[in-house]
UniProtKB/TrEMBL annotation, chain A:
Signal peptide: 1-22
InterPro entries hit by this protein: DUF5777
Organism encoding this protein: Salibacter halophilus
Keywords: Signal
Pfam families: DUF5777
Positions of the DUF5777 domain: 45-290
Source species, domain of life: Bacteria
This protein's name: DUF5777 domain-containing protein
From TrEMBL, chain B:
Protein name, per record: YceI family protein
Species name: Salibacter halophilus
InterPro entries associated with the record: Lipid/polyisoprenoid-bd_YceI (IPR007372), TTHA0802/YceI-like_sf (IPR036761)
Superkingdom as given in the UniProt entry: Bacteria
Pfam family, one: YceI
Domain Lipid/polyisoprenoid-binding YceI-like: 51-174
Amino acid sequence: MKNSLKLSLATLLLFSGNLLFSQNDTSMLSMLDPEEETVYVGSTYKSTRIVNSHSLKTTPKGVLDFRIAHRFGFVNTGIYEMFGLDQATIRLGFDYGITDWLMVGVGRSSFDKTYDGFVRAKILRQSTGAKEMPISLQYLATTEVNTLKWENPDRDNLFSSRLAYTHQLIIGRKFSKSLTLQLMPTLVHRNLVENKDLSNDVLALGGGGRVKITNRVAITGEYYYVLPDQIQDTYENSIAIGVDIETGGHVFQLHVTNSTPMVENGFVTQTTGNPFDGDIHFGFNISRVFTLVKPKSFRKSK
Amino acid sequence: MKQLLIIAFTVLSTVAYSQKYFTRSGEISFYSSTPVEDIEAHSNSASSIFDAKTGAAEFSVPMKSFQFEKALMQEHFNENYVESDEFPKGTFKGKFTNIENVDFSKKGEYPVNVEGELTIHGVTKEIKTSGYFIIDNGIKGEAQFTVSPSDFDIEIPDVVRDKIAKVIKIKVSMNYKEFKR
């Protein structure tokens, strides 16, 4: 009895040994204990902006991105203004990827003759594999300088009154190949506000995302809810819906939005358009990238 | 009885065992050349293992490990062409058909023929090519072959058709180490 048990055990061992070998023969690579790697989720968005807001995509290391953002006038201005086409608000800017987790940018908008600069850093990166991270977390800080002539040049005007700052967290996740969503808790600080009843700090919560329709076309959207009693009632929450179209070298972003400004302090706290009255801009963003610093493996070769 | 079985088992495992060589940091590069633009990409994260006796060989490379000169190219490669999220790896499974000509203990350059199945973008194709083993202080395997994106259901849109070659050259270079259990 004991012996036969031993025998059967040994046979089992033998067979399992054989089984192991035959398996190895079908896939030898599995014998290399797979050093599981961390795979970071990429291709969350086509562009570094959803429409006005920053997306989860950053400008890659060593890449300079020249961006033109353009909004026509409100479509409800009628045929006299050619439904807004006669008017234009524009922001020209340069973004640069210092590392793959840190990007900076500067820009100049025609709206309030605003100069802006920003820094955006990845804090957490969504990943699978050895290190699993369900979300991406990024931090955006912007400074905006309004350079309009002083309304009241006779009074004691301070340069600091021109400044506004934005701090934003971008919490996002790519749920599937086609769906990426993000939340954007936002704090805008204005050094100077219109009257003393208004608060200098404005808290808002933004939401945005994209749905890929094909490999080259995606629908995007974003919305900011400004918490009540912080800005004048005449201002609206910012909303934008767009289409991203990729044509090989460029990404064209076409969209409709009720916001005229294209930087954070502007579209979060100074959106005037009521979308239900037809205060809608047609607009587009164009980006053109230049590789200034090539990846290591290409530096020697040419 | 027990001893006999142990002996039998040991003998059997030795028979089944034969020397294998492997790498986890093999280099794979590909080149697309057109009058408009030359594109190349490199990976040094390819894994490979082969059996010096039977000639059976396998290769695998994470598609996302390919580095391009321009980040945008890399993104398009992963997102639009090979769709790396869905098909994360390129693999080859086949055989060095004349492995018996290679003397792994003697320095020299040995030509070998390779044939097997190449899988990219979820599509498997039979390929045949030749390469060589260079036995020096280590064991180096090198090969070159060409593929067509269209064979692997990789669609190239009209706007970039002039920039991406119909035939892509692939270079494989592996520094093998002895595989010890």
